[in-house]
Design a protein that fits this description.
heterotrimer; B: 338 residues; mainly alpha; 1% strand; C: 293 residues; alpha/beta; Rossmann fold; 2 domains; 12 helices; elongated
Chain lengths: 270, 338, 293
């Protein structure tokens, strides 16, 4: 198995902010890789840099040092639309305001494949329909995005990403706004996409248990550094977690054999 | 129905509407010409120096062309600003861009530029500069890390508009007080028959702006996803914004250079068209060109005839339509967001 | 009770000698403690009248636009007609300010009144009113003797113009105050009267009020035989001069066919002062050149 995405010694810092913030972090020098066909999760405390890492991977930001390679090619050498043919991002939230229908949204995902064209082709329409079918949103095609429920919106956004026909699907907090049922649905959908279509998935989540359940490998990010990379069992280790998250935890096993993390609540509540 | 077909239908409908209004505009006027006289003039069978020929071909026809061009350009500028700011209330006059352009024109006139063809390009350049200055000011005032907040944008537009209007008054009062009365009328918009040479300049400039916006239409759609998401899809958001900004300023400046500031066309027309063709800018931009022309032509025909033989400024009609329209859209949004 | 007493006293107590209450041209009372010797004029035609009557020694201040005769420019200016500096007016310690309701702002006048400065309003947009204004100004500056001959000479010149053009048929005249948008004198404008006196008939004489934004095609349809363009350039930029090319295109108009497209200096014709006879003669020469050979 070869690495689809390789991060080599990447360093990055935000330019000095106008307003003082308690912490303005930087990456000191990160290295890791994501294998083809795996489900890779990035976890860590808030402001550890998860979203910034995503921005570096998708070329929204440029690293100060080091390289990011997609299939051996530096990400910086690709035009944005060329990169978009390989990497699709599902953002945390649907954009607001957004007056378009689900179908129009999904069709936007076809842009990178023919950026110079004015109208989309019948082929584009077919790919879009297929993406909607895969995410169970075909019935919602004519509805405005703003009229959908949270879970439906998330699936529509996922359909748009799929319409890009990417090799790497990146999700930013895929379940943060969803209730339990939609969380389960999303997880199932992602597993199916990975299994049936072989889409490599990279997800960023603060939900440790979702990450543990879904991912083949995890990366624990702490203050801009890789604290550990490995299987969920290797990464979700109580003493490591306690150091990174600065609280007491208990790690158990779920019915599927994956680790599950819980806060160790104090015995007395007074 | 595919996008292409919907566009074709909408355009056909609007062109038909435009033709009807244009015919009405040619046959109705304060010179009290009989329909037969007008028809004769249009067919080229009237004497070159007869009243009907002069009025129909020398006054009404050029005025119809100016109205169509100006209305189309303003409507397209409205679509452009709305796509850029993701705000259906954004349009050249609301954002103070027409005031900036008007200031440019007044400056040009103070410097002695007149109405000949060569001067027309220079005046348009001044107007473009003024429009750009106003647009950039609004953008700089209203931009924040979270994007362009609606309220801030509208407020910034009002402030910039007031500023340039005041600047115009000051300049005129100091330099040439006698002109103040005439200029105040001009500031409400003035569709006058423009001679053929200048009309060509107008058409070329407006056409350039239109093409620029049209080519960016698909990418403008993607901008609705947010700049970061658009970038991740392959849209160069910065260049897109700059391109569309320039095009919208060019369109606005060109119109103001030839007709004085006219407001609300870029607000009303795109909004109505969205009900007809949806939010896709690829459909909105071409239909706005035709629909805007039809709208302004209708407004001008009304302005020309309602108190005949005196005339109203066309800006009065558009403002009377536009202000309540603005409130209606604003309320609609407020209710929905709340 | 005390108010009533004060009123009675005010009516009964003798006034100082020379004091008077005069009525200005709007019918308002203006109380003068003595014949004014320090006058600020905010009206160009009044300034012209003062000089024509020889009373300029009593003029201590003028507006920016009071530029005729040239000697008037040596008097200190208190600012524009719309926005004069009240401070400067006060600093000149005038005992009378002359203003007009057509050109000066109501606010300025109210402020002056509030400050206790006697303010005399003039209002002239007919020849008779203008002549009356000259007479009144003469009374104010105590040059009544100079008034009669001045008024008489103006009247005589007007009469002579009228006599010359009376037997001739009156051509249709279009007076263009402003070309784009087209602004023309209406029913109550003094220009309409002047055109009539000059032996013409303004095609917009029956429209609206003083100034009307008019339809170009209606003007064309009324086939004027003479077109007069008001030239604004004397007072400002080159842009104030109207370009005749735009009018040349209107080939159906008799005035264009006959080449009777003329410019006239705005400042002479638009100030209704002693030079009105000059303006009238100019206008009459344009409208009836055959009467002045």
């Amino acid at each position: 198995m070869s690495a689809l995405l390789e991060v080599r010694d990447v360093a990055f810092a935000y330019p000095r902010p106008e307003r003082r913030r308690a912490r303005r972090f930087a990456f000191a020098g990160m290295s890791f890789s994501v294998e083809v066909g795996e489900v890779f999760g990035i976890i860590g405390p808030n402001s550890a840099g998860k979203t910034s890492l995503l921005r570096l991977l998708t070329r929204v930001l440029t690293p100060a040092r080091g390289e990011i390679l997609l299939d051996g090619r530096p990400v910086g050498s690709l035009a944005h639309w060329a990169l978009a043919r390989e990497v699709a991002v599902v953002p945390q939230e649907a954009p607001r305001p957004f007056p378009f229908t689900v179908e129009q949204l999904v069709m936007m995902g076809r842009f990178p494949h023919a950026p110079a064209r004015f109208f989309e082709t019948a082929e584009d329409a077919a790919v879009a329909r297929e993406a909607m079918a895969a995410t169970d949103t075909l019935a919602l095609a004519a509805l405005p995005l703003e009229e959908l429920s949270g879970g439906e919106r998330q699936r529509a956004m996922l359909a748009r990403a799929l319409a890009q026909q990417p090799r790497l699907l990146v999700l930013d907090e895929p379940t943060s706004h969803l209730d339990l049922r939609y969380q389960a649905e999303t997880a199932q959908l992602l597993r199916r996409l990975n299994g049936e279509r072989g889409v490599t998935i990279l997800l960023v989540s603060h939900d440790l248990n979702l990450a543990a359940e879904l991912c083949d490998r995890l990366l624990l990010l702490h203050e801009g550094r890789v604290a550990r990379v490995g299987t969920p069992g290797e990464v979700l280790e109580p003493s490591l977690l306690e150091r990174v998250f600065e609280c007491r935890v208990v790690v158990d096993k779920t019915t599927s054999g994956r680790p599950t993390v819980q806060l160790a609540w104090p015995a007395e509540r007074r | 129905m595919t996008d292409r077909r919907r566009l074709a239908w909408a355009l056909a409908l609007l062109i038909a509407l435009l033709v009807v209004i244009a015919v009405a505009a040619l046959f109705v006027g304060s010179a009290a010409l009989s329909p037969r006289a007008v028809a004769r003039a249009l067919a080229g069978r009237a004497e070159r120096e007869s009243v009907e020929a002069i009025v129909t071909l020398g006054l009404r026809l050029p005025r119809v062309l100016v109205a169509v061009l100006a209305g189309g350009a303003l409507a397209v500028a409205g679509v452009a600003f709305q796509g850029l700011t993701r705000n259906p209330l954004a349009e050249p006059s609301v954002l103070g861009v027409t005031s900036g352009a008007a200031f440019g024109v007044v400056l040009a006139q103070i410097l002695g530029l007149g109405a000949g063809v060569a001067d027309a390009v220079a005046v348009a350049a001044f107007a473009f500069g003024g429009a750009l200055l106003a647009a950039v000011s609004v953008y700089v005032i209203a931009a924040s890390p979270g994007g362009l907040a609606i309220q801030t944008l509208l407020l910034a537009g009002v402030i910039v508009g007031i500023f340039f209007s005041a600047a115009i008054t000051v300049v005129i009062s100091i330099v040439d007080f006698n002109r103040l009365g005439g200029v105040i009328h001009w500031l409400l918009g003035n569709l006058a028959p423009v001679p053929a040479g200048s009309l060509t300049v107008f058409a070329v400039l407006a056409g350039a702006g239109f093409v620029l916006v049209l080519r960016s239409a698909r990418q403008l759609n993607l901008l609705a996803l947010g700049e970061e998401a658009a970038l991740q899809l392959g849209v160069d958001a910065e260049r897109l914004k700059r391109r569309v900004f320039l095009a919208a300023a060019l369109l606005t400046g060109t119109v103001v250079a030839f007709t004085g500031p006219i407001g609300f066309v870029g607000l009303i027309v795109p909004h109505v068209l969205r009900g007809l063709v949806g939010h896709d800018n690829r459909l909105l931009v071409p239909t706005a060109l035709v629909g805007g022309g039809a709208f302004l032509l209708a407004a001008d025909t009304l302005a020309r005839n309602i108190v005949a033989p005196a005339e109203l400024s066309v800006g009065v009609i558009t403002a009377f339509c536009g202000a309540p329209f603005f409130v209606w859209v604003l309320r609609g949004r407020a209710l929905r967001v709340a | 009770m005390s108010i009533a007493l004060a009123l009675v006293l005010a009516l009964v107590l003798p006034r100082p000698a020379g004091a008077a209450i005069v009525q200005d041209m709007l019918g308002r009372d203006v109380a003068l403690a003595a014949p004014p010797t320090r006058i600020v004029s905010l009206v160009p035609s009044v300034t012209e009248s003062v000089y024509a009557l020889g009373g300029q020694a009593r003029l201590v201040g003028r507006s920016d636009w009071c530029d005729y005769p040239p000697a008037a420019r040596e008097k200190p200016s208190v600012g524009g007609m719309i926005n004069p500096s009240i401070e400067m007016i006060v600093a000149l310690t005038p005992d009378l300010v002359v203003a007009t309701d057509e050109g000066n702002r109501e606010e300025t006048i109210v402020q002056l009144r509030r400050l206790g400065i006697p303010t005399y309003l003039v209002h002239a947009h007919r020849v008779e009113q203008m002549l009356d204004m000259v007479t009144r100004v003469a009374a104010l500056i105590e040059r009544r003797d100079a008034a009669a001959p001045l008024v008489a000479s103006i009247r005589q010149r007007i009469e002579s113009v009228r006599a010359r053009v009376a037997p001739l048929p009156a051509p249709r005249v279009l007076y263009v105050l402003w070309p784009e948008p087209l602004i023309v004198p209406g029913r109550t404008s003094h220009l309409t009267e002047l055109i009539e006196l000059a032996g013409g008939r303004s095609i917009t004489a029956g429209e609206g009020d003083s100034y009307v934004r008019f339809s170009l095609e209606a003007a064309v349809a009324r086939a004027p035989e003479v077109i007069v363009l008001a030239d604004h350039s004397a007072s400002g930029t080159a842009a104030g001069r109207q370009s005749p090319e735009k009018w040349q295109r209107l080939a159906s108009v008799p005035a264009i066919k006959a080449g009777r497209l003329h410019s006239i200096d705005l400042s002479i014709l638009h100030r209704y002062g002693p030079r009105v006879a000059d303006g009238l003669e100019l206008l009459a020469r344009i409208i009836h050149p055959e009467a002045f050979r």
